[in-house]
């Protein structure tokens, strides 16, 4: 029922829609994703007022290589939706959704840190889990897991906080 309403409302903006394992998910184009996500929050028929999670999936052999995956909940209407935005390896970016859901702040930073996907419009896009001199993005499937990283001096972040990386 939710998928039918989405197809009816957004038409060709929904590139793919499917129900799998009890969850509804749609694929939307990167260029229209932020506007569509804003509509999903604002329109009363959808009312997705909560961004539960934002992550990515690396499909190493596929083009486009990545999916940015948004898990949305409507507390009012009690339904959920997974929105996928396909991202090309040669130009890995999507628009930030911080203006739509404040919860996206750290989630986008984590996704950037782990997968190297840039979130355009994010005001403070820097590493959140790894240190600044860490090389690469460890959740990419082609990341060499035995790679040695630069050794950084141990610091007490309370006594001598590191400056922001950007």
Written description of the protein model:
Helices cover 20% and strands 28% of the residues. The chain contains three helices and seven strands, in the order H-E-E-H-E-E-E-E-H-E. By secondary structure, the protein is an alpha/beta fold. The protein starts with a helix and ends in a 46-residue tail after the last strand. The strands form two sheets. Strands 1-2-5-4-3 form a five-stranded mixed sheet. It has a two-stranded parallel sheet with strand order 6-7.
The percentage helix is 10-25%
Oligomer: single chain
Poorly predicted parts:
none
Please give the number of β-strands.
Answer: 7
What value does the average pLDDT take? 93
Structural class call reads: alpha/beta
- Overall geometry: globular
Order of helices and strands: HEEHEEEEHE
Please report which band the strand proportion falls in: under 5%, 5-15%, 15-25%, 25-35%, 35-45% or over 45%: 25-35%
Main sheet record: 5 strands, mixed
Could you give the distance between the termini? 45 Å
Number of helices: 3
Radius of gyration: 18 Å
Spatially, the strands of the biggest sheet line up as 1-2-5-4-3
Key phrases:
alpha/beta, 7 strands, 20% helix, single chain, 166 residues, globular
């Amino acid at each position: 029922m939710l998928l039918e309403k989405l197809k009816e409302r957004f038409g060709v903006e929904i590139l793919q829609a499917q129900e799998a394992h009890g969850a509804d998910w749609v694929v939307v184009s990167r260029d229209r994703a932020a506007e569509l996500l804003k509509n999903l929050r604002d329109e009363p028929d959808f009312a997705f007022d909560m961004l539960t999670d934002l992550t990515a999936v690396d499909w190493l052999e596929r083009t486009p290589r990545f999916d940015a995956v948004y898990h949305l909940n409507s507390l009012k209407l009690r339904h959920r939706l997974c929105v996928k935005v396909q991202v090309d390896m040669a130009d890995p970016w999507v628009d930030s959704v911080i203006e739509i859901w404040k919860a996206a702040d750290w989630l986008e930073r984590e996704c950037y840190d782990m997968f190297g996907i840039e979130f355009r419009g994010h005001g403070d896009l820097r590493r959140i889990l790894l240190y600044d001199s860490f090389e690469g993005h460890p959740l990419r499937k082609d990341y060499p897991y035995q790679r040695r990283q630069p050794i950084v001096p141990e610091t007490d972040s309370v006594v001598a906080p590191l400056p922001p990386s950007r």
